[in-house]
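URGENT: need a sanity check before tomorrow's submission.

F., can you look over the Acid stress chaperone HdeB record below? I want to be sure the sequence and structure line up before it goes out.
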Amino acid sequence: MKKSILIATLSAALFIPLSSTFAANVDMTPKNMSCKEFLDLNPKAMAPIAFFMLDDVTDYKGGDSVSLRESAVIAVPPMVEFCKKNQDKKVYEFKNKLQDLVAH
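Structure tokens as predicted:
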């Protein structure tokens, strides 16, 4: 009994640091997302991706930002159109065009 508890404790002690190492290497942003991956998303998940792209390191006049609703209504349809035509490209390649659409 004591031996099995010791083995379980040692196994857990070895596994926990390894799992945090692997978790630290996961990119949780859409910066490297391909258009194919974007199109495979649930449509409800597309607006947060557009929102992230529009507000990522962007300075609008007066410190404004783009709302999630505006991202869903204005930004998602052109992103889907771009990605359908360019499935091998990265979503971020459309970022500047997307910002121009929203700013005007």
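My own read: The chain has a mean pLDDT of 75. Residues 30-103 form a domain with the 10k-s Protein, Hypothetical Protein A; Chain A fold (CATH 1.10.890.10). If you see anything odd, call me.
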